[in-house]
Amino acid sequence: MSVFSGLSRPLKAAGVALIGVAVVAAVIGGVTVLNTGGDQNAGPSTSGEPTAPGSSSSAPSSSSSAPSSAPSSPASSAPPSSSAASSAPASSQPGQPGGQPGQQPGQPGQAGPDQQASNKWVTLRVYNNSLVKHLAEQAAADFRGSGWNVAEVGNYAQGTIPATTAYFRPGTDEEAAAKQLAKEFGFQAQPRFDGIQNSSPGVIVIITKDYQPGGHQGS
């Protein structure tokens, strides 16, 4: 039997209307409950826009989560290279005896072995100006024994020379060679005088009686 049996037609109509309203209200209430539950799970959006599914507004950013006290790289803790360079002892330059600054090979008064050897290629012409026979030959033998290039041996009779001397033409290789030879054998070196100005090229060594054969002084 129907629940509306025994009721008048107007009452039946009213009952049907109430039931329809109740059904509509129930549907609306169910939809509202579903929407409310979805919003609670998603959490409030601070920007006023709906939060995208699967994302979380409370997730920490990569920059904020990095520790502020990260250890420095090995390069930042290494000492500067300049300190190592400044602590290294300065090496002496080649040709500087004892590492003293400012001395270079071949400087006047500081001639190195290479410079001394290079001067010995210069031609020497040895002349006797004494009454001692063969004194020039003996001197030439001494010079050759020390590595000098003796090209001529003879006599000088155009005047009297006061002391054994090596004569050179200024500004030529003869100058350095004559000074080295004079220092090595213990006599003097001077520029050429007028009487031998036009003589053959080379250091002219005029030997006098003061020369002592074998009198090598050392370099």
UniProtKB/TrEMBL annotation:
Residues 43-95, 102-116 have a biased composition (Low complexity). Residues 37-116 are annotated as: Disordered. Residues 122-211 form the LytR/CpsA/Psr regulator C-terminal domain. This is LytR cell envelope-related transcriptional attenuator. It comes from Amycolatopsis rubida. The lineage of its organism: Bacteria, Bacillati, Actinomycetota, Actinomycetes, Pseudonocardiales.
